[in-house]
Amino acid sequence: MVQQQNSQRTIFMADDDEDDRMLFLDAILELNLSVVVESAVDGLQLLDMLSQAVQQLPEIIFLDINMPGKNGFECLEEIRSAKGDLQGVKVVMLSTSSNPENIELCYELGADLYAVKPSTFADLKKLLLKVFQLDWYAVKKGNKRILMA
Q: pTM score, two decimals?
């Protein structure tokens, strides 16, 4: 977990690749974003974290597609079928895949945004900055927007 002083925003991220998780956390730190990041190594751990986060649900979940146990599609489907406040949590699919079928399925399952993982650390920071500067009220469900650095 990475925490900064006076943090008010909480985000969760799930990715089975340790390097990707570390780069994500490093980018958040370098951008000096005022967030608490909870990371999961797979979909099962993410869903467990969400079930225990009754008091403090994340504002955004960054979700990789290809993970063991439960993949990103399965996690997204469970998140969107859950009852209660979890429905309001924004889900950003963050994957190396730019396959149109994967993108379409993510939006069909209820993703708020699809972002292709950048190949450089600088581009990852640009991408994260874009996500955190988004006006979520202007992001319409089903827009099928693909975010890139």
A: 0.88
Look up the CATH number of domain 9-147.
3.40.50.2300
Contact 121, 27 (CB under 8 A): yes
Domain coordinates of the chain in residue numbers? 9-147
Give the dihedral of Cα atoms 8, 34, 141, 13; nearest 10 deg. Answer: -100
Q: Are 112 and 135 in contact (CB under 8 A)?
A: no
| 47 Cβ contact partners less than 8 Å away, ≥ 6 residues apart | 70, 75, 78, 79
Helix (H, G, I), strand (E, B) or coil at 141: coil
The token pair that represents 11 in the structure block: 């985000």
pLDDT tens profile 84-120:
788 889 999 999 988 999 999 999 999 999 999 999 9
Instruction: Please check whether residue 91 is in contact with residue 111, taking contact to mean a CB–CB distance below 8 angstroms.
Output: yes
